Amino acid sequence: MEIRKIAGGVTAPKGFSAASCAAGIKYQGRPDMAMIRSSVPCAVAGTFTSNLVKAAPVRWDMQIVKEKQVAQAVVVNAGIANAATGATGMELCRKTAEFTGEALHIPADSVLLGSTGVIGPNLPLDRITAGVAAMAETLSDSPEAGTAASRAIMTTDTVNKEFAAEFELPAADGNGTVTVRVGGMSKGSGMIHPNMCTMLGYLTTDCAVDPSLLQELLSEVVPDTFNMISVDGDTSTNDTLLLLANGLAGNRPVTEKGPGYDLLKEAVFGICRDLAVRMAGDGEGATRLMEMRVTHADTKEHARILARSVIASSLVKAMVFGRDANCGRILCALGYAGAPFDPDTVDVYLLGDKDTVCFCKAGCVLPFDEEKALELLSGKEVRFSCDLHMGAEEAVAWGCDLTYDYVKINGDYRS
Amino acid sequence: MEIRKIAGGVTAPKGFSAASCAAGIKYQGRPDMAMIRSSVPCAVAGTFTSNLVKAAPVRWDMQIVKEKQVAQAVVVNAGIANAATGATGMELCRKTAEFTGEALHIPADSVLLGSTGVIGPNLPLDRITAGVAAMAETLSDSPEAGTAASRAIMTTDTVNKEFAAEFELPAADGNGTVTVRVGGMSKGSGMIHPNMCTMLGYLTTDCAVDPSLLQELLSEVVPDTFNMISVDGDTSTNDTLLLLANGLAGNRPVTEKGPGYDLLKEAVFGICRDLAVRMAGDGEGATRLMEMRVTHADTKEHARILARSVIASSLVKAMVFGRDANCGRILCALGYAGAPFDPDTVDVYLLGDKDTVCFCKAGCVLPFDEEKALELLSGKEVRFSCDLHMGAEEAVAWGCDLTYDYVKINGDYRS
Given B191, B329, B413, which is nearest A324 (Cβ)? Predict the structure, then answer.
């Protein structure tokens, strides 16, 4: 039994439909709202920003995920974050959920909400409700509807992000196996340094699975996927990742850890990793995806801390932009990461598909093939690794280069 | 009794002379080595980088500061950091100190060393020793010699940094008071996110003071001066701050905490703060100095953490470059800082000399005077503050904007 990647996104699993519309919330002349709906109630799991300043929709979703663990729809807008909006922002969430509930004939507290964009302004309720009404009429389970939804939630993203996969599980009726699917979409380009989850990510599955297991699964997947990417070190006020499971695949329900749980987790992990890497490579202004692999660390968490430190270093990011093999900056970023290692035993490499350049052996920077290094630094993906010679753990982090365009985009974001 | 700012730098206190030369270590046609010498042995205190990857001269200095607490000269080079150079780098330190000791007729282990520049390459010993020989012949206690030394240690700095101050202390012979002086110079523009100290900073004083008190004083001053600035979040491998006290002012020695200790500390604090602010404003590519003041925090350390988080945020830095009053980014950076506060009670301000713009009250972003905000964001110094309404502690951090030139400088640093 294995995981197969398939086309599509959130509408790939049975029973999920999606819609989008141009509500004119801030952007004009482009879709800026999306909706996902399941035909039946779903078990729901979620992870949220660790930022103390939490946007109103984050607070709204956290309550549903923690207290009810059941939901049936998601409404998302781009352009305005509904953060730092106090009681007004929470009231707007309540009204949006009530309006959506009426339109979809489901309880208001089974409507999850997401917002992304500028912090501070209030959302225009009339445009939000007009958008919800329009989307409720146009829900579709087609792949195109899922793709359109993934486009509608983009802000400074340059490409949409959606992935799907399928695998087999024993059927509920005992007759052979059934196909279970997982789909997902996410957005995020700036203010990306997830801590507990990413900017906005929505995962769907038709797998029948126990709600408490679902949360455990998601919490296990996030530390090595969305939490391992960084664009600019800024952890957003709105980070939200939700996983909805409606059980319509007809599999024997996953109620304990075992082969079924492992397969579902592997599928969710693969989609989360692909979405996360796509987000890192589409960082604001980025021209290159950067990967940092830390091997032979003493603990998994130390490997993660060290890999993330390199990915987040402004100097490493600028050096990748300039294709300058100034490898001492990688050593420097490892050194201030806050995780222990012996600086006199670390090796650092620049990895290619066929060739590898060794920058540093046993803590000393070595002469290396500058021409080969320049060639490897000129690709669309630049991959570094380091060997700590300490233990058996490893971790991978993803980021992007720091460019003139990042500065340009963020020096003039509101206008 | 009060502190008076005076002209000059490291040669302002009695008995200190300086020299510089163009040794051609990496830069050509400009001074790249500096020397400071005291006519008599000094008590010495120091703080060093917390980066696990410590440059060879950092390791050399740490041993002298910790084990001997006595030194008489400092030799510094710009261009090559002598970091990640293993045993070869340490051997080079030993040889440089031995050569300097012979040239100045002092013990080799009273020679402190400092290097700044590219990580990885080995220093050319012949050019270093030729530079030391030349400088030993040209030492001078003139203000010009101090200024020239502060210029010689610059890398991507655009202005040199030196300050001096004086105050009165009771004379050692009981007859009235004597004038005590403190001087300092520092360099640093990129890879600036000091943790325990700054890039390279050298302080001199003719105050007679107990060596153990000297280290305590320096350790008390650093957390609110050099540790409160950030240019790019990268803590260097070479950060070093040294304070040499030769006792030649003729004051009654400061041997315990009290009025004398307090005056010396205030003078050292003022010079460290001025050097730190100058470094922040001269960050690589910077067009503006940025200041963040956190008031009414519950603890001093929380205030520091919150202020530093705002200063280090790429999004806040880019917004200051673009003069965009996207104040939600300040709230966001406070929220992920890792120090506790109530997001529903925080106020955020943009401060001018006469006017103040309130961005955010009780956690909600407010409408504000955009024209006035643009005016205040257009100055050479941009000052933010926030009021946490929690306690009585406050802290100030300094940084700079994130510009195209930062990316340009660091995308192509080695060549």
Answer: B413
